[in-house]
Write a structure and sequence with these properties.
Layout lengths: L37 E7 L8 E7 L17 H14 L2 E7 L1 H7 L1 H14 L7 E5 L10 E4 L7 H24 L5 H4 L5 H10 L10 H8 L1
Parallel strand pairs: 1-4, 4-5
Antiparallel strand pairs: 1-2, 2-3
Helix pairs in contact: 1-4, 2-3
Length: 222
């Protein structure tokens, strides 16, 4: 899957039915940064043994709150797909970026995740006045920003970013499954499930495996 260098905002409404709200809407920003052009940033794919790590940045429209949006890990695959279309159809702008398996091996998964986040924010066609980043760390960049632990459960902009990153990565792993059908990437998305571990031991690593991750490195060492 090719990730767009910058994703244009869409003003047309989506014909899909809205997911049933699971809770009251999360705030778009914390009070001290209310009124600013706010971006939320999150990643997907730090734990897998294969494939790129994805990051998304989203600037939501304060006039179009997304009821029920939350951490992508807390909702079903179908709910993520439904929210994906709502987010790209109602946000002011969004972008998705990656850091490859090769980059992960070169600079480690934390730095690769931060790199993907930096790329996503840079690709927004509206540049934010403040950025909230899920987790403990912000990338080294020029943006005023704040890291928020469990931010994808606290702020709607981060929750939206978590959904775009997760759906985008899952879609790429489905495409990669057709290139490497023996590994079962469509089922496990690269995570170290029993099926993946069995195929990895039987077949050895393929081109998209992260060579510095312990199970993959052990296979390479024989």
């Amino acid at each position: 899957m090719k990730v767009a260098q910058a994703a244009e905002s869409l003003d047309k409404s989506d014909s899909r039915a809205a997911p049933k709200p699971a809770r009251l809407p999360l705030p778009m920003s914390l009070p001290e940064h209310a009124g600013l052009l706010i971006a939320g940033v999150d990643e997907a794919g730090r734990g897998p043994l294969a494939g790129a790590v994805f990051a998304a940045a989203v600037i939501l429209d304060p006039d179009k709150p997304l009821a029920g949006v939350t951490d992508s890990k807390k909702i079903s695959e179908q709910q993520r797909e439904d929210f994906y279309h709502l987010i790209i159809g109602s946000s002011l702008c969004y972008a998705v970026a990656t850091a490859s398996a090769e980059e992960i091996d070169q600079i480690n998964i934390l730095q690769a995740s931060l790199l993907a986040m930096h790329r996503a924010v840079q690709q927004l066609h509206k540049q934010p006045e403040f950025v909230y980043v899920d987790g403990l760390y912000c990338p080294r960049w020029e943006y005023a920003s704040q890291a928020l632990v469990k931010g994808d459960s606290r702020l709607s902009a981060i929750a939206a970013a978590s959904i775009l990153a997760k759906v985008s990565r899952d879609r790429e792993m489905l495409e990669l499954d057709s290139l490497y059908p023996d590994y079962g990437f469509a089922a496990h998305k690269g995570y170290p499930t029993p099926l993946h571990m069995q195929r990895l031991k039987t077949l050895g690593p393929c081109a998209i495996h992260r060579k510095t991750f312990k199970p993959v490195a052990e296979c390479l060492q024989g």
